[in-house]
Amino acid sequence: MLIKIERDHPTPVYQQIIGQIKKLIDQGSLEPGSRLPPSRSLAEKLGVNRSTIYLAYAELQALGYLQSRPGSYNIVLQRTREVAYDPDRQSLIRWEKACSEEAARIYKTFLGYTPEKSARPGSGPPPFDLASLGLDPGLYPVDDFRRCARHVLLNSGFEPLEYGSHKGYPPLCEYIAKRLRLHGISVSDQEILITNGAQQAIDLIARLLGGPGRKVAIETPSYANAIPLLRFNRLQVVGIPMKPDGLDLAALERALREERIAFVYTMPNFQNPTGITTSHQHREKLLSLCTRCKVPIVEDGFEEDMKYYGQVALPIKSIDEQNIVIYLGTFSKTLFPGLRTGWITGDKELIGRILAIKRFCDLTSNNLSQVIIHRFCTLGYYDKHLKKIHRLFRQRMLLVLKAMKNCFPPSVSWTRPMGGYTIWVRMPNKISSQRLTEITAQFGVGVSPGEFYFPQRFPSEYFRINIARVPQDKILEAVKRLGKALGQLAS
Amino acid sequence: MLIKIERDHPTPVYQQIIGQIKKLIDQGSLEPGSRLPPSRSLAEKLGVNRSTIYLAYAELQALGYLQSRPGSYNIVLQRTREVAYDPDRQSLIRWEKACSEEAARIYKTFLGYTPEKSARPGSGPPPFDLASLGLDPGLYPVDDFRRCARHVLLNSGFEPLEYGSHKGYPPLCEYIAKRLRLHGISVSDQEILITNGAQQAIDLIARLLGGPGRKVAIETPSYANAIPLLRFNRLQVVGIPMKPDGLDLAALERALREERIAFVYTMPNFQNPTGITTSHQHREKLLSLCTRCKVPIVEDGFEEDMKYYGQVALPIKSIDEQNIVIYLGTFSKTLFPGLRTGWITGDKELIGRILAIKRFCDLTSNNLSQVIIHRFCTLGYYDKHLKKIHRLFRQRMLLVLKAMKNCFPPSVSWTRPMGGYTIWVRMPNKISSQRLTEITAQFGVGVSPGEFYFPQRFPSEYFRINIARVPQDKILEAVKRLGKALGQLAS
Question: What is the pLDDT of residue A71?
């Protein structure tokens, strides 16, 4: 057995030995069943300490190269052979026929679904990304999070790596309940259910309330990712127009009278995509209408914590005397979306029924993330982080709105949000998402075409921009470039 | 403003100042709108450095106690008031009527569902837990994991905290594909979809293939958590008996001929709950039968990595020439279940269709966990950990089987698994899960009553034990105690 030690090499000696023996086995020079020299004699031969050989042999046993029975000879093991991958293999099953009607439909939607991928195919994301709805990751409080993660992993032992409670990590439920009480919502930890982001919250509610012949009333336009999901859960989507002050309540009233509506889905703050925030009066009217008709409201508070111009209005849930509002929230729009942590709250029995679904669908949400987020929040890092991004966006929103006025053609108009991230832009003419994407990409800008936000997809005169994704030093340049693109579209 | 500094106190001076000002504001001694003294004069008064006061004021601004406009006076802010919680509030909505048929049914199941909670109500878990299907968390490689987590959070910046790919973290998909190729499955990373544990994998497949009038053939008994989930997804459950060598293939053939079966759900290794492993021949026959009938097989490889007595047989997926097998796996049975990381693989088009559902249901799985697990695996920690638990359970399974022979009444029989964790025990008489739970709890032991593993719940002569949850030094005592409980049940 030929092994060469280089004492000056940065790789430790035992690792050099491991590497060379692995190679001899992988190449077949050392065949399965053959014996390695006893550690003593190999140590002598190589002029190294015997413990070095021990270490190398132990590691090779752990890796499955050597038989691991202690005390016996070191026998080379039969390595499992990796099979080849055959990319051309076809399936006997015709999946299109095998899958359900709803599954076939969502797949079709999925294939052409690119609301936030507004670059030309193959050209990579545009350098000025006003399309995707997220925070500039440069603003994530990564260091604070790391400190919390380190503390949790050092001090909580195996607990965070174990199955958690189906409902969610109890201390985090308590924290969220307290936070919601500060937003005026009367709730205890018993009525909090942690979900894999707000998206799973919408899914669970739709799974509970959907069914054959059932309908859901949504704002038009509404959150793009919700529309296919609601339909997938056997809910026919009834679009109610957004007016400048929120959902058209007269149209909603007609729909509630004429159709069998399972629930109303609404985003009262900084609505996605329009950025519209409703007044307290509008919320009262909406609630009183739904209470009269006994129709639940699903209130999506995805940016409740982005009220950086101060309190705009309390959540609908806060005035919900009859407990008809199902409220959902998330950390994904202010903190770390990759941790997939959202929540649902509402009537206790309702939460129990949603829990029954969640319990069988994926048992529990990620436990480790919940434990770390809990520490992060209760040490005050979340509030500190919110203060920071509030300060930033208070200025940025005004800056962007001013720049739009200066740079956009006069035929273009837009909403003036009272917080949050999104602005809804209206062009003088309808345009296909493809053309919009092409032209803006020429200027290095990505926007989110309006057509994805409506129940029926047609070329639209609208698009959404998100002011939070682009770093601070690029945001004005992004607006300027978008202005040029709009100029070209208008000409 | 009365502030007292104690210089000998372990709390830093600036934190003492923060604490006391917070208290004054919370108590109302400092009213909203009132001005705090300029930092210079407060510093002089307290005899501290001016930067100490700066630090304290900055923190109070971050916490929302003081107005945060820089340069101006430090004005006390109106604190948001927390509303009270009213536990007696009722809902106007009758949720039982509002929810779908499937949701009503799963809720009913959920309320009486306690397959692994075999203690008497209110008495806490029994000290000898043979009920829950998990690994003794004392065996988790927590230190290795912490090192990986630390490295990821120090070196990967914000990436792991961002939204990940809908399909899963690409390097982890590659790792899993390679691992599956070592198990004989011809697959690339393109056909791997990461899920929130294997439970979500089952859910996604059922959502794809379920629908009105559709049926699924399952082993009887089968994985308890799967039965309500399949039904929730509009799949009527057709039970096919387990024989000592696996699924009764003649009965399956009849069912495939007579009923419209959407897919067959099977666990060929260490089946849950029976512990039965099928032979290569049985796998070939099952595959050939389903290929002939063009019915997909869902192969649940939840304990593929628990073959501690060596290779038992390759996965059905490894001989699946026609690509009809959907294979699923998980880290939850060998590693950290709290990280909820499982996967699905199969035909490329099939994976695309499942991805479409996953993409709208919860966008993506937890990204951070995937990045850390990837590092953990590729550094060899996973293989090292497997070697360790293999060594342990190779001995433990034999030990437990021998102890059962010595301690159990002769009227009781059980399976002899070739790996994995679970043993299926048969008593001479049927018994209600409640009575079984009560008697075993008297001896401090928890077992999982058999009735939860059948499509119809009746008192059963079976129960499942898991040998992996109880620490090494308690396992023989657990078996002994269980023997005594069985003696009492038999008398």
Answer: 60
Size of interface A-B (CB pairs under 8 A): 338
Tokens 């499937």 correspond to B102
From the list A246, A133, A245, A260, the residue with the least C-alpha distance to A199 is A133
| Structure tokens, B406 | 């010595």
Scan residues 247-276 of B and list those with Cβ closer than 8 Å to A: 262
In the block, tokens 């959404």 appear at: A464
Does A339 sit within 8 Å of B203, measured CB to CB?
Answer: no
Q: Which two tokens stand for residue A90?
A: 């076809």
The nearest alpha carbon in chain A to B360 belongs to A229
Tens digit of pLDDT for each residue in A310-363?
Answer: 766 889 999 999 999 999 999 999 999 999 999 999 999 999 999 999 999 999
Q: What is the pLDDT of residues B400-428, one digit of tens each?
A: 999 999 999 999 999 999 999 999 999 99
Instruction: Give the one of B64, B140, B291 whose C-beta lies nearest to A158's C-beta.
Output: B140
**Domain A140-383 in CATH 3.90.1150.10:** no
Q: What is the CATH number of domain B13-75?
A: 1.10.10.10
Name the burial class of residue B43, with classes exposed (0-12), middle (13-18) and buried (19+) by CB atoms within 10 angstroms of its CB: middle
- Cβ <8 Å between B161 and A95: no
Is the complex ipTM more than 0.90? no
Tell me how far apart the terminal alpha carbons of chain A are, to the nearest angstrom. 77
CA distance B135 to chain A (A): 9
Residue whose entry in the numeric block shows the structure tokens 């501690």: B308
Cβ contact B137–A161 (<8 Å): yes
Q: Which residue is listed with tokens 């990712």?
A: A225
CA–CA–CA angle A52, A55, A60 (5° rounding): 125
Residues of chain B contacting residue A322, judged by C-beta atoms under 8 Å apart: 91-92
pTM of the model: 0.86
Superfamily of domain B103-138+385-490: Aspartate Aminotransferase, domain 1 (3.90.1150.10)
What are A371's two structure tokens?
């434990």
Write the residue in A85, A164, A353 that is nearest to B188 by C-beta: A85
Top-level class of domain A109-138+386-490: alpha beta
Question: For chain A, what percent of residues have pLDDT higher than 70?
Answer: 96
Residue ranges covered by each domain of chain B: 13-75, 103-138+385-490, 140-383
CA distances from B431 to A486, B158, B436 (A): 75, 55, 7
Q: How many CB atoms lie within 10 A of CB B257?
A: 9
Is A460 in contact with A449 (CB distance < 8 Å)?
A: yes
* Nearest chain B residue to A335, by CA: B161
Q: What is the mean pLDDT of residues A377-389?
A: 93
Under an 8 A CB cutoff, do B137 and A162 touch? yes
Cα A490 from Cα A476, distance rounded (Å):
21
Spatial separation of the C-alpha atoms in residues A185 and A166, rounded to whole Å: 23
Say if B141 is an interface residue toward chain A (CB within 8 Å): no
Identify residue B33 by its one-letter amino acid code.
G
Does residue B430 surpass a pLDDT of 80?
A: yes
How many other C-beta atoms can be found within 10 angstroms of the C-beta atom of residue B488?
13
Is A429 near chain B, with CB under 8 Å? no
What is the structure's pLDDT at A367? 96
Residues in chain B within 8 Å Cβ distance of A262: 98
Q: What are the tens digits of pLDDT across the range A171-216?
A: 999 999 999 998 889 999 999 999 999 999 999 999 999 999 999 9
In this predicted structure, the answer to whether residue A79 has a pLDDT above a threshold of 80 is no
Note the pLDDT tens digit of each residue in B276-310: 999 989 999 999 999 999 999 999 999 999 988 86
Residue indicated by tokens 């998909």? B173
The CATH code that applies to domain A1-81 is 1.10.10.10
Between chains, do B336 and A229 touch, taking CB under 8 Å as contact? no
> Is-contact B286 B266, C-beta < 8 A?
yes
